[in-house]
Amino acid sequence: MNQEIIEVIDSEQDETSQNWYNLLEAGSLKEGYDLDRFVEPPRKDFNCLICLGVVRNPLECSQCGILLCKKCVYSCSKPQNPFFSMSNTTPKFNCPICRNRSAPREPSMILKKFISVLIVYCKNRKRGCGVCKGLGEIKNHEKECDYKVIRCANHGLCSKEGSKIDFITAKCPKIGKNTNQKSKLVCSEICRKVVVMSYLLKADKIEEAIDQYRLALEQLSQTK
User: Fold this and answer.
1) Most buried by CB count within 10 Å: which residue of 3, 57, 70, 132?
2) Could you report the per-residue pLDDT of 138-162, keeping only the tens digit for each?
3) Between 102 and 19, whose confidence is greater?
4) What average pLDDT does this structure show over 186-202?
5) Are 55 and 68 in contact (CB under 8 A)?
6) Measured distance CA(9)–CA(141) in Å, rounded
7) 121, 132 Cβ separation under 8 angstroms
8) Hey, what's the torsion of the CAs at 134, 135, 141, 147, to 10 degrees?
9) Are 18 and 90 in contact (CB under 8 A)?
10) Percentage, residues of the chain above pLDDT 70
11) Residues 6+ apart with CB under 8 A from 121
12) Of 66, 71, 31, 73, nearest in space to 52 by CA
């Protein structure tokens, strides 16, 4: 009878522990934020004890309360089955400090807020960006940052990469009454004409595409 009770309790704990683990996101997670990104040194208890950065997607040990990045929690967890397979078995958390085996928990909303308002430099700082924002806001800025690295939209013929601010806009003409004007970023006037030409060809605007092709050839000859 006692053995049956123990087995039921273990089963319930295993079921609870599965809530913190998501196999689909495991490969996309990142380690903590580098300390040199912060305008002022953050509190040490915000640092992940595994990667040593400020915790990203933090989880908390339910026993000793340390914070770890979710990616690092995965890395310090061990399978419950020695014949472990990522496809069908959930690893069991193993706290690197207190060795607690209980499932980690989400930190309080207040603690998450404290971390989200820490001021950091844009990741494109070395390329010239001077923007500083809270951790909770900086990602939205970085998506549109003028200094982020992009590739020329003329993918078929050009592989040039560089800061967004150094590229020019190729505006593709409207095709039809309900079509919005499309814009792409390219590295040069030649690539601008090639991108517009390709767009016109797809829209069966052959004559206009030939005009763009001719202009691109003229531009190329002048460049040489």
Assistant:
1) 70
2) 999 999 999 999 999 988 788 899 9
3) 102
4) 82
5) yes
6) 47
7) yes
8) 100
9) yes
10) 69
11) 37, 38, 39, 129, 131, 132
12) 31
Here the tokens at position 5 are 């009770």
Q: Give Cα separations from 198 to 98, 178, 179 (angstroms).
A: 61, 20, 17
What token pair was written down for 166?
A: 């150094």
Distance CA 9, CA 14 (A): 9
Taking residues 54-58, report their average pLDDT. 94
Q: What is the DSSP string of the chain?
A: -HHHHHHHHHHHHHHHHGGG--HHHHTT---PBPGGGBSSPPPGGGB-TTT-SBPSSEEE-TTT--EEEHHHHHHT-EESSTT--TTT--EE---TTT---SPPBPPPHHHHHHHHT-EEE-TTGGGT---EEEHHHHHHHHHH-TTSEEE-S-TTT---EEEGGG-EEEEEPP-STTPPPEEEEESSHHHHHHHHHHHHHHTT-HHHHHHHHHHHHHHHHHH-
Report yes or no: 27 and 70 within 8 Å, Cβ to Cβ.
no
